[in-house]
Structures are given as C-alpha cells and as structure tokens.
Write a structure and sequence with these properties.
This protein is of the alpha/beta class. It has helices at 36-42, 65-78, 91-102, 133-142, 152-162, 165-180, 207-216, 232-235, 237-252, and strands spanning 6-8, 11-16, 21-25, 47-51, 84-89, 107-113, 194-199, 220-225. Strands 1-2-4-3-5-6-7-8 form an 8-stranded mixed beta sheet, with helices on both faces. A hairpin with a 2-residue loop joins strand 1 (6-8) and strand 2. The chain starts with 5 loop residues before the first strand and ends with a helix.
C-alpha cells in the first residue's frame, strides 16, 4: 500500500484529498491496496477515507456485521463527518447497508460492488485444506474472472491469514454472521441513491444477486462490468471508476 496508514484514537485509516467525503469499505479478505486505483483516480476532487475494519481486534463474542457497522458509526463520529458516500466491496458493502439502514441521515449515496447481504458463495463455511498453498491459490483465483489478477503477493497474504488459527476463526465467524444477516426485508427503507457496480462473471455474489438488490432498493441503478469477477475496482478499475464518476457527478453536482 503506497498510502500511509494513520493511527488515531484507536482507529487506523488512509486519508487523501479534499471535497465531498467518500468512505471506502474493504471486504473480509480485502486489503486497503484493493482500493488504490480508486484513491488514485478520485483523490484530486474528493476527500477519501479508507478505514481498516477491526476484523481481528473486536471481541470474538461480539464479532459480526452489526458490530462492524457500529465501529463505522464511531469512526464517522470521530472524524466529525457530515453526509458521506459509502462505497463497499463484498463484506464492506454489507456493512455499508447495515449502517445506511440505521443512519440514513449520514449517507448521501451508497455504492455496492459484489456486496453480501442477500447471498454469497464464499468459503462454504470452512477452509478444509488451508495448509495447502495450491488450494488457497485456487480459492483466491475463484474471486476473479482472470486468475492472473490473483497475484502471488495477494495469494501469499491470504495464505498467511488463513493459517493463523485466531484469524481463521474470526473470518469464519464473520462469514457466518454475514450469511445470517439477510437484509432483503430492510432494503426498501433505503431511499437514497444506490449504484450497483457488478462483475458479470462474479461467482461469489452472482449476477442474480445484483438483480435482486436492484429490485429491492427503490432508488438504485445497476451497472455491469463484463469479463470481471467479485472485485471490479481491482480487476477492471478503469470501468469501475468511470461508472463511479458518472454516478457521483449525477448525485453530487445537481
């Protein structure tokens, strides 16, 4: 990650730029570097914040999507933010949805890409062969349309994480929490503008998930990214940024 991580009052985050605030939320296995192409593209015109979600720090008994949403609320209050645009990938999208449902007054708009909250095909509840590097490599490649997007550096990081017992217990607890917390009955209450930017070949949260989000979110648009899997901002950053820029221009420059 080429951006400095700031440590401030128990929070860790990356901050760049000035203007309207965009808060970028990473996924369960996501690194802050997943958002680098977005930060690079938008930092000259927007205030960008990327909090590191405390997946491995919160007490295990309370760890779940709701507790991470409460953490996000504390972060927003700590930074004295007004209305923000939340942009979330995978688990980060789910946390953004829970936060928005509870605090819609703080959210100007929401962007979801490969978000959980309705359905996801993550790990099947376990890592049966986590000691096998090839198995983990295959699992990481499954995330993308082009397996080459799963760089050795990325696979190494995931392999290291899932082979730390305390971390893998937390990852599985969070994955189960996400599956249990289905948001289908809450989405109609989210009336702010929502942009869905979705990989057409996403195997983790397949295209029908995006269609369902689009049907259930009353003020949503759906944008497809072809030849792309679960993380469009990594795999097709130029297309992702183009969709995001058009959406931001439409909702913020009225």
């Amino acid at each position: 990650m080429k951006y400095e991580v700031i440590e401030d009052n128990g929070f860790k985050y990356v901050e760049a730029g000035k203007g309207e605030t965009l808060v970028l939320l990473h996924g369960l296995m996501g690194e802050l570097s997943n958002w680098e192409p977005v930060i690079d593209h938008f930092k000259n015109h927007y205030h960008i914040l990327v909090p590191i979600l405390p997946l491995y720090e919160l007490p295990i008994l309370t760890l779940g999507v709701k507790s991470l949403s409460k953490y996000l609320h504390r972060f927003v209050k700590h930074k004295k933010l007004g209305q923000v645009v939340l942009i979330g990938n995978s688990l980060g999208g789910h946390i953004g949805l829970i936060f928005t449902a509870a605090h819609q007054e703080h959210v100007k708009a929401l962007v979801l890409t490969g978000s959980s909250g309705l359905y996801e095909n993550a790990f099947g509840g376990s890592f049966p062969r986590r000691e096998s590097y090839d198995y983990i490599k295959e699992k990481v490649e499954f995330t993308f349309y082009d397996p080459a997007t799963a760089t050795k550096e990325l696979v190494d990081e995931v392999f290291k994480t899932v082979n730390e017992r305390s971390k893998v217990i937390r990852i599985l607890a969070l994955a189960k929490s996400a599956i249990r917390h289905n948001m289908s009955k809450e989405l109609s209450r989210i009336t702010i503008p929502v942009s869905l930017i979705w990989g057409k070949q996403d195997k983790v949260t397949p295209p029908e998930v995006a269609d369902e989000f689009h049907q259930l979110l009353p003020n949503s648009e759906l944008n497809w990214v072809d030849l792309c899997g679960h993380a469009p901002m990594m795999e097709r950053p130029e297309i992702f940024n183009d969709y995001l820029e058009k959406f931001l221009n439409r909702i913020l420059l009225k």
